[in-house]
Specification:
Blueprint (H helix, E strand, L loop, with lengths): L2 H10 L5 E5 L5 H9 L2 E5 L3 H8 L16 E6 L5 H14 E12 L4 H12 L3 E5 L2 E7 L6 H11 L2 E3 L4 E3 L11 H9 L5 E6 L5 H9 L3 E8 L2 H10 L7 E5 L11 E6 L4 E2 L2 E2 L1 H13 L1 E12 L5 H7 L2 E8 L2 E7 L1
Parallel strand pairs: 1-2, 1-3, 3-4, 9-10, 9-12, 10-11, 12-15
Antiparallel strand pairs: 4-6, 5-6, 7-8, 13-14, 15-17, 16-17
Amino acid sequence: MPATELLYKTALEQPAGRTLVINAHADALLTALHEQSSKLDLWQHFKPENNAIRQMGLNATETLQSNNGNYQLILLLPSKNRQQTHYWIAMAMQMLGDGGKLMVACANNHGAKSYEIALKKLAGNIVSSSKSKCRIFSARKTASLDREAADSWLNAGESQHVATHGLISRPGLFSWDRPDRGSELLLKQLPLLSGTGMDLCCGYGLLSNYLLRTNENIEKIHLVEADRLALDCSEQNCIVWREKYESHWLDAASEVLPGNMEWIVCNPPFHTGQTRDVELGQRIIENGCRSLKQGGLIYLVANRKLPYEQVLKSALKSCQTLIETEGFKVIRGVR
């Protein structure tokens, strides 16, 4: 039984009033939970999962508003990043009414035990059980809440200036606290760019910030990203050039992208959750190539062994590897 199903099924056995699901995932039980709860709020920052929830006929917000307090029950599915999950747990405690309950479910091999220990330390109470290689645990908001620890988790998980790259980022984003080696290699291979282009899967905006700082002839850059939290950071990192960027919260693998691009830069993801997903990168590249105008260029970086060349050859007039080093390759394609 996956953690999502375990969480929703357990919640259905304990009817509550106003309820929030942090990092909500689509599941048939979510509809039943919606019908049972007097008021159910859903939050999901990742566009593909947000789309899946909306396709169920439910509404999930893209931003988590800390002033929406007085929840009686909050359900939480951890992310793969510990600091981000701690931030969400602390935020949940802040949003519960007195006596309200936070319930968390997590697969054992994704850090369930450590999160249970952390919640017990924070809340001062815990109820826990295990089932189907998952752990579900809950704590109530009482006077035992360690508010100093909660504040520390909130501060550590917020958007923040990161000295290693000089930009705004936050835990949970790809390579959030240091420039990733692939993107650095891609930047070294880029010519001077101009006109209108796209930073496809822009993350917190490492590439866009550099391009806007160093290419004065860029007229417009489209920031495309599926993670709302990352897109918010990229907007902050490009705010100096506010008239030159346009941001898009999109699932780059399946939704229609801005078209007629003169160039695209891309460091595509190849994981879904904690699972390697090569086809994800291939779908993003294929979709991105459709956004290029005739003669438009795409520059992408990838791990050396990822099989992207055939997708590029099928979609473009030509493509060539510009460099292959340190486990990465940079490819240039022309539509």
